[in-house]
Specification:
Oligomer: single chain
Helix content: 25-40%
CATH architecture: 2-Layer Sandwich
Strand order of the largest sheet: 1-2-4-6-7
Shape: globular
Largest sheet: 5 strands, mixed
Number of domains: 1
CATH superfamily: STAS domain
Structural class: alpha/beta
Number of helices: 4
């Protein structure tokens, strides 16, 4: 599994997309690469697009571990949007993660069907979901 990302400085957004299966090791590899990137800023908004992931190979405990491991962004001003597409199972996983992340950190999280909805939320033009 891989999470590919780009940092759009003009939009102040990190775009990340799951390619293949979503695994704990893959998430940590992504986070290490991202935080080592010279263009990384913890205050950027983030879109984490899981809409085309082949499979979610994460337990509830692993999702909570990811939420806790991300404490390095504690106090950041950016938002995190999880893009799920229309699959109800992906939406349920995103909601569970969102709840865990917001319990452990101050960063706001929401889930959306499309990246366009997430971008509108970043601009405070769309509803939080």
């Amino acid at each position: 599994m891989a999470v590919e990302y780009t940092i759009d400085k003009e939009l102040n957004v990190i775009f990340a997309k799951v390619v293949g299966d979503l695994t704990l090791d893959g998430v940590f590899d992504y986070f290490r690469a991202l935080t080592s990137d010279p263009d990384y800023d913890p205050n950027l908004d983030r879109i984490f697009d899981s809409s085309e992931a082949v499979r979610f190979d994460l337990s509830a405990d692993e999702l909570e571990t990811i939420a806790k491991q991300s404490l390095s962004t504690q106090g950041s001003t950016g938002k995190t949007a999880i893009v799920t597409g229309t699959d109800p199972a992906r939406k349920a996983i995103a909601i569970f993660y969102k709840d865990q992340a917001q319990f452990h950190r101050s960063r706001r999280h929401a889930s959306f069907v499309t990246a366009e909805e997430a971008l509108a939320w970043f601009r405070d033009e769309g509803p939080e979901k």
